[in-house]
Design a protein that fits this description.
By secondary structure, this protein is an alpha/beta fold. It has one domain: Carbon-nitrogen hydrolase (Nitrilase/N-carbamoyl-D-aminoacid amidohydrolase). Helix content is 28%, strand content 27%. It contains eight helices and 13 strands. The strands form two sheets. Strands 1, 2, 3, 4, 5, 6 and 13 form a seven-stranded mixed β-sheet that branches. The longest helix has 18 residues, at 20-37. It is globular. The N and C termini lie far apart (48 Å).
Amino acid sequence: MEKTKVRLLAIQMESAIGNVELNIETVKNLLIANLKKYGGADFVFLPELWTVGWDCPSFPPSATTLDESNAVKMLCDIAKEFNVNIAGGSFVRKDGDKLFNTCPVINRQGEIVCIYDKNHLYSYNGDTENHYISVGSNPVMVELDGIKIGLTICYDIRFPEIYRAYRKAGADILVNMAAWPKSRKIHWDTLTRARAIENQTYMVALTQTGLLADGVENLGHSMIIDYDGNILDEIEEKEGGIYAEINLEKEYEFRDKCTVLKDIQDSYEVIKK
């Protein structure tokens, strides 16, 4: 790892349902304003499906290949101009006859270094993401500036196994990029902090704000959480940025003192009586 103090910036915004070009302009303006406000950052994070909003019927007409995406092109330009790494939330990516809920990761030179396709498709309460989107094949941990980041999208947060896999693989930071409903605020607040605490890892948890197509409200509670579950910065129901300078040395020291992963047993065989 090359550096221990890392500047994190996360952007919360309201998507205009189905209006990709307007959403690109909104995010571009928010990125520029907040990067200038905080004097830059090392990593920037965006929410799930900010290009189109959470509206399943809008997914197919908004879909593009990675190379053809105007949203990704804009993020590459911003990354290069402001010398920042970007985990670009997600957009609907077309690959042959399949669609994926895809996070592009872009380095300081404006180059796409990897993508992560959402591993768990939202079927909670009868939703239909899996009618439109294909399941991603694997978790993806990206290393930039010597820092390892485990990528997840929205519904992934309900599956602690993926976060533990990242932690065992050496993740320094975990991120969940979401479009989360206000009606399940207690789930969001609890699950995101739990993932940070149980893995002793900084967590960036960001979601959209505003309304969905059916009138359901997005939560709009984005947070940067430390390895002990403390909220370093947060934003409620408005557009804007949250920022924190984290110290990875403190994270490693905490792990040495609280040896949770070392104390896990190899297996847990349940005895039924």
